[in-house]
Amino acid sequence: MNPPAALLWRHLRVFQIWGSNTDVGKTIFATTLCKAAAEHYSHEKVAFLKPVSTGAPHEADSWHMRTYAPDIANDTLFQYEVACSPHAAAKLSGQAIPLDSAVLAEIRSHAARRAALGSGWLFIETAGGVHSPGPSGTPQADLYAPMRVPALLVGDSKLGGISQTLAAYESLKLRGQDVEAIMLFQDAQYENHLYLQDYFQPSNVPVYTIPKPPQRNTDDRAEHRSMGAYYKRLSSDDSMRDLLANLDKRREDRINRLETMNQKATDTIWYPFTQQKLLSASQITAIDSAHGDFFQVLSPKAASDEALLQPAFDGSASWWTLGLGHGNPKLTLAAAYAAGRYGHVMFASSVHEPALALAETLLENMRNPRLARVFYSDNGSTGCEVATKMALRAARLRYGWSANDKVGILGLKGSYHGDTMGAMDCSEPGVFNEKVEWYTGKGHWLDFPTVRCHEGQWQVDIPEALQADLGCGGETFESLDEVFRLDERIGSATHKAYEDHILRELQRLVSRGHKFGALMLEPVVLGAGGMILADPLFQRTLVDVVRSSGSQLFSTSTQHSLPDDSPSNTDWSGLPVIFDEVFVGLYRLGRFSAASLLGVHPDISVHAKLLTGGLVPLCATLASESIFAAFESDDKSDALLHGHSYTAHPVGCQVALESLREMNRMRASGDWSWAWRPSQQEPEQRQQCANEAPLVWSVWSSDFVDQVSRVAARIEGVWALGSVLAITLRAGAGDEAGSGYKSTAAADLQARLRSGGDDGSWTAHTRVLGNVFYIMASQKTDKATVRGLEKLIAEALLE
Amino acid sequence: MNPPAALLWRHLRVFQIWGSNTDVGKTIFATTLCKAAAEHYSHEKVAFLKPVSTGAPHEADSWHMRTYAPDIANDTLFQYEVACSPHAAAKLSGQAIPLDSAVLAEIRSHAARRAALGSGWLFIETAGGVHSPGPSGTPQADLYAPMRVPALLVGDSKLGGISQTLAAYESLKLRGQDVEAIMLFQDAQYENHLYLQDYFQPSNVPVYTIPKPPQRNTDDRAEHRSMGAYYKRLSSDDSMRDLLANLDKRREDRINRLETMNQKATDTIWYPFTQQKLLSASQITAIDSAHGDFFQVLSPKAASDEALLQPAFDGSASWWTLGLGHGNPKLTLAAAYAAGRYGHVMFASSVHEPALALAETLLENMRNPRLARVFYSDNGSTGCEVATKMALRAARLRYGWSANDKVGILGLKGSYHGDTMGAMDCSEPGVFNEKVEWYTGKGHWLDFPTVRCHEGQWQVDIPEALQADLGCGGETFESLDEVFRLDERIGSATHKAYEDHILRELQRLVSRGHKFGALMLEPVVLGAGGMILADPLFQRTLVDVVRSSGSQLFSTSTQHSLPDDSPSNTDWSGLPVIFDEVFVGLYRLGRFSAASLLGVHPDISVHAKLLTGGLVPLCATLASESIFAAFESDDKSDALLHGHSYTAHPVGCQVALESLREMNRMRASGDWSWAWRPSQQEPEQRQQCANEAPLVWSVWSSDFVDQVSRVAARIEGVWALGSVLAITLRAGAGDEAGSGYKSTAAADLQARLRSGGDDGSWTAHTRVLGNVFYIMASQKTDKATVRGLEKLIAEALLE
């Protein structure tokens, strides 16, 4: 496990030199900068690094540096003989082609060694243009992005050079790079520098120029003389000295800002869902940037020669949103394309391509014959409110209730659907809502059986309220897979007992005057409620009972003719069934739709978080035509009265489209097949079934889950599904409430992960829900990273 | 008024050829394509256009075309003698430099003439690289973006050409361009085409190659012979024929999709706030793209030789969000930078630069000493819920109410704060909420005096309920400016009467058992309620009375010691005052904060819509430290229980930062000074006060407002402030309710604007609120466009 790291030290000044074209003078600028730095900071303090170089040694850039700045430390990490693009040269070399991560690791090691020597400068020169491919073929702009070394862009002073410079600048910015300065030769004919100075002035990017070097001389000695004289002349040029001072200042400002931003945040930010009295500035993580699965976070206690930034695995997937890695260039380009094509455009009574294409893609991929309509909003909470408005209206009209009737939600204990007040009202009172002034839980929430692995055994725990009905306290299974084999479990005694229990409960509720307008569930896993894995058979049975018996049960009017409960493919019966898939959907649990794990089709389905791959807020509430029809009227005000200004904003829709396409592509091409079969199977066997994902699979290995479940002294249970791992810890002795949201039982484990892996080269940043520790991967996390995390967690639990 | 138009015709196939570098063979590809098209579609049908060309005629690209494809129609619009970048050549020419809009208009006219000839092909060749500046200095990628002509990118086959091609591609995508194909020469040494084919395969961008042309020959006749032979050989190459067929198909797909998407939307989209039974497919606008202030919309009834796309002024500023123009490249790049640097990162207990910098920028610019904290959410509605949660808690704790006490909002009739249920509950029953199942208005909403211009006279209308207290039905003013001179109006008889009335009302409400937890106002203008301009003196007085007498009034407990009502700079008194500036803030009404028009500082302020300049959803709720302190406790669950997954998403924060910086820059440099003084004043006078914006100003001229107000037969009143113009129309004879949301009185005017301006070259897309017609400009709309709209509106009203 070798996560990419950003490069930042307190005393070593690291800069990366990029070219806006080939042959724009990168090496000359590098040499000039090195010489200028040597003059002001003594030559031992200055170093030059060419990570990847092509061409015969005496033609290479480092040769030029060695010739004209012989005092400067000068290294090349990967040298290829053939003078062409590194990816081609690497192939032709016949040597093993280094992975991107290996190239980054080598650069970091090199820089760390320089940093250990104390203060100084390190200039890293790239090869060719910003997108020239590295040895593996990855364009350098992507390859080096995680390092976030401040960029110096050498502009193109030739004909057409304005265009090359602007395009290269934009490609760097797209990767979150800070371009600290543009440097280019003065050219009296084209005067590109004048244009560029004006252009970049509003963005506060300074443009520095030096005279053009002399014409290249074919005679080596004459060339040496004239270039020597050129560098000599430059040494009295103030321009590079100014640039160095400017770079030094910007770098100091960056470190300063990073080191003070937690205090500033403490003073100005009002944090979400956070008791700030209990959050000191030192507990706030300053995030410099993020790439792939890792934040690059400030290490506040780094010694003066240690790296200031450290990779931290984003173990909460940034509040469950991350799907395709931080800084994913495909998502960035999708966002930028939509921003350029539309900005935001009004959605009411109009239509644009990303919104329509996304609606079509969602409806197609859900494979739910009921769903026919897509309503857009901004987040899971608003999307659940929309779903609620939809369902309540449909139910009220069918059952003939008046607008004043108190109609509630039928749900499960511990459900949570978001923080807006309407969404809060969809949940029973609990720590997330009961202190909120206008909160009034509207409905009833049933207790339900849950699933966990405990001491190597998968078991379904039956809550007390059901135990009498079921005549037992639980059931055990060979594997999680078996728990989800609903076709086999339906018809069992447990199933019958679930049916009876649910029907009795509903009859009791209705007899007490309850009116319900929706069955609202988070299918399979209740997220914020504590990562509770529900027995899928119970959820399935609940839906079935509501649909088969609901019309008779819930109708309180005799005046209206009701559709019978015969199963319809598209019309709702009993109650509109809402699945809140905000957390569980879109491959989080391994399936496009978590509903498919239950084998039922909801009438309304809510999707957010992963929808945009983890980039910008967007929510889609999908509904059936029969729900939609409830709002059709000749009266404008009977419409669904909801609509945010940025409804269906093109940037979000385009990113979501790209994100769904990419995840579907990954599934289809077997990118997750390493996780589809138990680890005992041979790779060949796994290869065979690359395109057939099992119903139940997880990136967290079953061996690891088994191992964790046996740490009986500390663990109450564990489960893993898709990218999610959840561990319920036994409450600590000091815990007030024993368990639940207020417990601090999982904090030890969390703290242990934050202190990092074996070699201290990375840490893991996780969130806990009371005594539940959870961690999740993105859909891009590789096997090595997951196994590295497993090792860290196992060690922490066994300590 | 000459809005930029996208180019699309039913039969004419228009494509634009871009270079990823200079000297990559654009002209050779153009010639090859023209010849191939001529072969298959007859030469009369094929045309070549070089909008801007530099160099002596016999060196120009059109010369090459004329030489080797003499049958092809071949035009140049702007020819400059000096062979350098068009912006430099234009300067050197001594001729007047054409505006970007003039260049676009010429291209469109030219293409329209070709389209009038029937089916065919038109290839438009750009100059230099994608960012090479046009005559005005605007990079071509920006200059030509509004045309959205499908792009053919000529890749660079030379050393370093991979980088140049990828960077150019990204710069085009950033402008919302569809790159239909990449074309480049085969080069056996570098084989860039092989890399590019692999690279672009997942994005479905085909890469076409042809052999390299022969070495250039200094002898003209030899050159002519060898190039002639080259083109002859190419004519049997299938590659260009395939490309043409592919282009033709993609273009047909585009038109097909545009023409069917309204029907598809009718079938799959559930529209926000829309009674879809009353919305036929033909009423849905298909938006192809948008640039600046204009959508590019499908003209469904375009004749076969007429343009399929037409610019439509975005008169609702896309539901009040648009600030800096659609497709603004600065905002796009800001979004892309944050996406590349972070994606989204977890915000609870962490901090990142865009969120912190935006918080600091907002707090600084509000110039409100009370505000000290920033809470992020996703839209105005959630931000108002957050504000409500904040205020209710603060009030409840101070006044010692229990969590079960029914605490409401004190507001104004017609207020509206968003569509989530909690935000709906902050408003009195009305057409937007009363049919929503869980809606229960919580609070009381006072009637209030309103402002309008009527028959040339500015007047304040007093609602009936207040007339007895005031002893009159209204007041008249010389100008709107005078209405806002609160320093002069405070102390007047009206002010005293307002005070007395408000105090009496509050006493009456409290005596009836009302408990209030917040005073919540949209300062100055109530948006969704019908663009109602409130008398600022009344709103100001309301805040003052609540603050000065509130503690005594609202406290229902005698057990708690209350802070006295002495005015504090930072602590709240009476009630926490919430200003919902979602619509009115951030320069929409001409001022950074609309509160400054009232001269009071709220304790909580909500900002969204314009916050991101009109790109992505984001909301900031600002609050005072005394409000924040109400949530401090040793108990986690006393925290503010709100927090969306994408809280403070870096893309939104970075775009907002860029947007606020740009709007502040525009204000400081007097970009709006043309609108700051009445039109009677001379330009010189206006120049003098370029940096001093008056308190009250509007882009809509006072002459125009005066003119509209005198159309007495149709108009009840009109006002203009900042970028907003609102006209209340008299209800039509057929209107059921007479006025209000259900009225259709404004629909005629709306329909008239949709049918467009004089020459049919553009239309205006507006929204209405019942009998209120409104239109707003963005912060980038220029004077000519506003005056053009004024002319259109005046004509429509006088018809």
UniProtKB/TrEMBL annotation, chains A, B:
Q: Report the domain of life of the source organism.
A: Eukaryota
Q: Which GO terms describe its molecular function?
A: adenosylmethionine-8-amino-7-oxononanoate transaminase activity; ATP binding; dethiobiotin synthase activity; magnesium ion binding; pyridoxal phosphate binding
Which CDD domains does this chain map to? DTBS
Q: What are the record's GO terms for cellular component?
A: mitochondrion
Location of this chain's protein in the cell: Mitochondrion
Output the InterPro entries linked to this UniProt entry: Aminotrans_3 (IPR005814), Aminotrans_3_PPA_site (IPR049704), DTB_synth_BioD (IPR004472), P-loop_NTPase (IPR027417), PyrdxlP-dep_Trfase (IPR015424), PyrdxlP-dep_Trfase_major (IPR015421)
The entry's keywords: Aminotransferase, Transferase
What is this protein called in UniProt? Adenosylmethionine-8-amino-7-oxononanoate aminotransferase
A Gene Ontology biological process term: biotin biosynthetic process
